[in-house]
Amino acid sequence: MTKDKKSLTYVFFTLILASVLWYLLFIVKPFNFWIQMSVSILILIIISSFSKNIVFKFKKITPSDILLGILSAIVLYAIFYFGNIISGYLFSFKDTEILSVYNNKAQGDLKLISALLLFLIGPGEEIYWRGFIQSTLAKILGENKGYVLSALLYSLVHVITGNFMLVLAALVCGLYWGWLYKKRQSLIPVIISHALWDFTIFVLFPLI
Fold first, then answer.
1. Residues 29/31/34/36 CA torsion (nearest 10 deg)
2. pLDDT at 2
3. Radius of gyration (Cα) for the chain, nearest Å?
4. pLDDT tens digit string along 134-166?
5. 83 touches 172 (CB < 8 A)
6. How far is CA 68 from each of CA 42, 57, 62, 172, rounded to the nearest angstrom?
7. Reduced to 3 states, what is the DSSP secondary structure of residue 144?
8. Is the dihedral of CA 122, 10, 148, 68 positive or negative?
9. Nearest residue to 76 (alpha-carbon basis) of 203, 200, 204, 168
């Protein structure tokens, strides 16, 4: 087996694991949602770190990285804000599915949820999805194909939740953060963007 095939096989293995973890998280719900999500993210980071083809592109933090992360989080929130209004006219089940996600806030103190979103969940997802999945696919298939495929996979993993709005949100986020990572070639602004967006949309200014 060639090196590229081994890398793709390992990517596929971690994606299966991610799907199982997401199924447990959103469907089975064996214990507290936020703790389970944090543990799931840590498992994916640890598993992906065993890959010999791992590429976590961290660079020195610059003021432009911080500014870009903040501005991109604001832009993405605006996209979701107006998208939420438009989707209300298109999907009668929109509010029910979005509320099913927001209801998880009842399982934890807002301070704990905020800390997990800002310092573990948001950053962890970027390390796995962009730092490992997109970087690996881009190295094998090329930047553009790796970007598009990783965004689609990010969305497809959420299909197992049975929540259409969550799948659609994942697709938008995957394309958005994947593009930012492809252009910047650094995880720093993407992590800042994801963490701030998570915190804003779940804690500060929920859409519902």
1. -80
2. 81
3. 17
4. 999 999 999 999 999 999 999 999 999 999 999
5. yes
6. 26, 16, 10, 18
7. helix
8. positive
9. 200
Mean pLDDT of the chain: 94
The set of long-range contacts for 92-100, using a CB threshold of 8 Å and a minimum separation of 24, is: 93/164, 93/165, 94/165, 95/208, 97/163, 97/164, 97/165, 97/166, 98/165, 98/207, 98/208, 99/208, 100/163
Mean per-residue pLDDT, 58-75: 91
- With the C-alpha atoms ordered 143, 21, 191, 79, is the resulting torsion angle positive or negative? positive
Which tokens belong to 123? 């950053």
Query: What pTM value is reported for the model?
Result: 0.94
Residue 137: its pLDDT value, please? 95
